[in-house]
Design goal:
Layout (H helix, E strand, L loop, with lengths): L1 H13 L3 H18 L29 E7 L2 E6 L2 E3 L2 H8 L8 E5 L5 H13 L5 E4 L6
Parallel strand pairs: 1-4, 4-5
Antiparallel strand pairs: 1-2, 2-3
Helix pairs in contact: 3-4
């Protein structure tokens, strides 16, 4: 009699209903496919996005850094590819630039402090609220 009981238990334990398990696995698969995010991450998107107005090319943007250098005895103010030698012409160039990013003034180590003060005043007169000064590196 004990032999019959063990056979019955084995037959009951070995016969698992697989139909229910397949249904559950299928529902889990559908759930994960529906909730998955297949969109590209923002840092993987291309940088050149199309706009309706055609956008701005990188060559249209000029850096808003005023480089001050000496050529002989003359002080030269350089913004991008534009070179100025006095405060009035520097102010007229600065008036054409956007004010939001601000302006940075970078000078060579041998430039007199008066030239730096002139550039700072020209930026202030042109309406730049954010002005910064970066002294020249003497190791160059």
């Amino acid at each position: 009699m004990t032999l019959n009981r063990t056979r019955r238990r084995r037959s009951q334990l070995g016969a698992l209903p697989l139909t229910s398990m397949i249904d559950v696995v299928f529902l889990l698969l559908v759930f994960f496919l529906v909730t998955a995010d297949f969109a590209k991450k923002e840092n993987k998107l291309p940088a050149a996005l199309q706009t309706e107005g055609g956008g701005v090319s990188s060559s249209d943007l000029q850096p808003q850094i005023i480089q001050i250098s000496l050529e002989g005895e003359q002080v030269i103010y350089t913004i991008g590819q534009v070179r100025c030698s006095d405060r009035v012409s520097l102010e007229s160039v600065l008036n054409q630039l956007p004010r939001d990013p601000g302006v940075a003034i970078k000078s060579a180590p041998d430039v007199p402090i008066q030239a730096v003060a002139t550039a700072l005043q020209a930026a202030r007169n042109a309406g730049f609220a954010r002005r910064s000064y970066v002294p020249g590196d003497s190791s160059n």
